[in-house]
Fold Helix-turn-helix domain-containing protein.
Amino acid sequence: MADRYLTVAQVAELLGTTERFPRRLIAERRIVFVKVGRHVRIPESALNAFISANTVQPIGDRRSSLGRAA
């Protein structure tokens, strides 16, 4: 299946941010993008990879190993 190419506005909407954030990711070369003339598109797979790479997993329940508080 072909990859969908998203506009900066679509990426911002999916991330719940303003358009400035995806534009900064592009300017800093922190996300894969495709330039078609003056238009910039981000492959959906690149967005998913960016989200996966920046997802922080919880440590878990640390209280169980600390014992009981006084």
In short: The beta strands are 5-6, 34-36, 39-43.
